[in-house]
Every structure is written in structure tokens, then in C-alpha cells.
Amino acid sequence: MSRVVVTGLAYATSLGFNHDDHEPALREGRSGAAPIRRFASAGFKNSTGGECDERRLDALLETRWPARRLRGLHVDTRLILWAVAGALDDARLAPKSPLPAGLGTTLEGFWQGEQWYEQHTRATHARVPPRRLLNVGAGGQLASIAELLELTFDPSFISNACATGVSAIGRLFRRIRRGACETGIAGGYDCLSRFIHLGFDSLGALSPRACSPFDKDRSGFFLGDGAGVLVLESLDSARRRGATIHGEIIGYGESVDAYHQTHPEPQGLGIARAIAQCLESAEIRPEEVDYINAHGTATPANDAAEARGIVAALGEVAGRKVPVSSTKALVGHTLGAAGAVEECFCLLALERGFLPPQANLTEQDPACPVNLVRRPEGSPRIAMNNSLGFGGANGVLLTRRWDGEDA
Questions:
Q1: Domain 4-400 falls in which CATH fold?
Q2: CA of 157: how far to CAs of 160, 173, 187, 289, in Å?
Q3: Is 74 tagged catalytic?
Q4: Domain ranges of the chain
Q5: Which of these, 19, 81, 114, 175, could form a disulfide with 180 (CB 3.0-4.6 Å)?
Q6: How far apart are CA 272 and CA 261, in angstroms?
Q7: DSSP for 61-73?
């Protein structure tokens, strides 16, 4: 089996772009939540969201393409375009076509569809041409990206609820590990839209208060923009290229609760199976895990089930000892992007030697028996990234700090 390393990455959230923007916010517990500007939120229980800086995003894109080439691409397509291009640039990779691409999304270009529909209801067919819907589907978005990058992709689209980002990375990891390909890109993206905000608001999952995972008085999350893309590569390929290595992915596990469409299995048995599978694939003992970036949505059912699943999978000693935090307190729930963005947070913590503290924690819920990070001190070597989703989807990645080829 091939060892699989990360040689490029790019990610964006409401906190900014890439490591330098995110590190101080994660260390300090600074949230990107703010009043929603993208659409009218009057009448919702929650009017807070985590929107990316669209002006800065456009400025970054326009250093590479003239504005006329980007016309017609809305924020969701622009986010994933920037992330794909940035990850390839970071890897200093001039890929051969077709490049394997595993992209995860739950909404695709839904915001663009909303925009078209709103314009269509106010105008005639002639004034709002249907071609504006080309980037509503993930395939159309990837086609636009391929055209701009002058690159052909071998695409795989993943939609696995809120475990989507982790699933996309995990599937490509498995392909490279078994020798089916040497290099590829994987990640996830989604952006805040009125429809999805309305859906979660009606479910009562959005909190008018600060998002406080694992807290006794937690009441939900806020939604946010997100995109994260990694270049995964076999170690042999990275060595031949003399590539800079951000970290090594060493394990992946997945499972389905088969319990309920919107609630996790209460004892965390599904996420426990995914964690156990991930540890087995990595040949890692539970006590070797140094940090867990939890799914942690700050909803009562999710946090308690995930915490119990961690303890069940790692054992009473390791499960209650390993440092845990949920960075959704800072960037919100980015849906299909969540697992990919949080994988980038794990790589950030491993590369720069710190533990992201659990933000907005006042009093830990006894029903969540895990060791929550209170201060950023620490130097983790192995990080676990958990993602859970509707329908009982679970995905887990294990990543090791790059200390050299013999690690």
C-alpha cells in the first residue's frame, strides 16, 4: 500500500483564507458569526451567519483571471474555483489530465439557482437566460473550473450529508493508497443560502445565541460559507517531485447509523464504528490519538451521541483523556465543506503545534464526557477529524504530522 501525503491545500471560511488568517482566530476563539447580508433574514429565529469576504475573494481571483472571465460565477462557484486553484498552486503541481477530483457538496450551486429564480419571477425568459443555470449543478461548476484552469478532471461527486467533505477526502485517500492513482484533489464546498437557512431554522437547529458545542446550555449552530481542497499524493510521487508535505493521512473510516433521518444513534454506536474502522486502517492504538476535531454542532442530541461514541471507540481511559474541540463554534456549520475545512484545521494544528480551544464553553455538559480543550498549548502528532450527518452518515479521518519519511 502507498503512503498518502498532503502536498497542497487551500480553504476559506468567514474567518478568512488559509492558515495565516485562521490560526489566530482558532487560538483566540474568535468567531466569524455576523448578521446575514446576502439575503433578507427577517422572520427567522436566527439572522446570524458566517459569510466569507466576497470582495476579498473576488480580488484574489482577479489576480489570476480578468473580471470578464469570472462573470456569471456566483460566490459558491468562485469559492471552489479559488480553493482548487490555490491547492494546486500550493502543491506546485502542473497536473497531467485527466486529474482525479473528488469534490463533495450538499447544495451544489443552490444559491445560484435561488438568484436565477428570483430574477426570473421579476422578468421575462429573454432577460434571464437559462444558461445562468449551468453552474447550479456540481458538474457544471467543475466544467467552469476546468475551462478556467485549462485542465481535464476525472470527476467524482460526493453528497453524504454533513459527512460529505470527509467522505470525499477519504475516498481519494483509499484510491491512492491502493495504487489506483498517484495524485488527485479532494475536498468540499457549500455556501449560505436562504433556502438552507430556512430549512435548518424550521428544524430549530439554529441558535440565536453563540454556538457553544458540548456546553450544558447549548442550543444549536449558525450556518457558514466554506470551501476546502487538498492535493493528495503518494509519498513516492511527492518524493520524486521534491514536494513540500503538510501532513500524512493514515486512516479513514465510515459507517451509517441506520437509526433516524435527523437524529444520531443516542449512544454514538455509528460514529464509534467509523472511529474503530479508521484506527484499524491506520494501525494506530487509541492512546496514540492526540487531538480530535469533533463534528460538534452544539445541538443536544449530536454532541452527547458523539462524545459517547468517542469514549466507546477509544475506551474509557483514552476516550476521556484525548483533547477534543469543535471549531464549528467559530466558522459555523459549513455543511458539505465542513469535513474538508476541519481537515485543514487539523493540518494547521499539526503543522504549527497547538490545540484549538473549545470556544464559547461556559459549563461542560456531564452528558458529554470528553476532555475539552481549554487552552491552545500542545503539540499534537496525530489528529482525528469526525463528521456526522443526516441519515446517520459518519466519516472519520486520521492525519499524522509530517516528521519525515521514517515517521
A1: Peroxisomal Thiolase; Chain A, domain 1 (3.40.47)
A2: 10, 15, 10, 30
A3: no
A4: 4-400
A5: 175
A6: 18
A7: HTTTS-HHHHTT-
Percent of residues, the chain, with pLDDT higher than 70: 92
Return the DSSP state at 356.
-
Name residues whose C-beta falls within 8 Å of residue 42's C-beta, 6 or more positions apart in sequence: none
pLDDT of residue 251: 98
Separation CA 387–CA 244 (nearest Å)? 27
3-state secondary structure of 104: strand
H-type alpha helices, 263-375: 269-282, 300-314, 316-321, 328-331, 338-352
Catalytic one of 333, 344, 346, 368: 333
Residue 67 in contact with residue 121, Cβ under 8 Å? no
Q: Is residue 333 among the annotated active site residues?
A: yes
Q: Tell me if residue 295 is catalytic.
A: yes
pLDDT in tens, 353-374: 999 999 999 999 999 999 999 9
What is the DSSP-derived secondary structure letter of residue 157?
Answer: E
Q: Determine the Cα–Cα distance for residues 307 and 324; give it in Å rounded to an integer.
A: 9
Q: What is the DSSP letter of 275?
A: H
As a whole number, the mean pLDDT across the chain is 92
Q: 371-393, pLDDT tens digit by residue?
A: 999 999 999 999 999 999 988 89
Nearest to 385, CA basis, from 334, 326, 331, 332: 326
pLDDT tens for residues 232-275?
Answer: 999 999 999 999 999 999 999 999 988 888 788 999 999 999 99
- For residues 114 and 181, give the distance between their C-alpha atoms in angstroms, rounded to a whole number: 37
Q: Which of 197, 211, 295, 368 is catalytic?
A: 295
Structure confidence by residue, pLDDT tens digits, 314-342 = 999 999 999 999 999 999 999 999 999 99
Chain centroid to Cα 157, Å, comes to 15
* C-alpha span between 41 and 61 (Å, rounded): 29
Of 19, 74, 162, 344, the active-site residue reads 162
Cβ burial of 147 (10 Å; 0-12, 13-18, 19+) is: exposed
Confirm if 79 and 224 have CB atoms less than 8 A apart.
no
pLDDT tens profile 161-183: 899 999 999 999 999 999 999 99
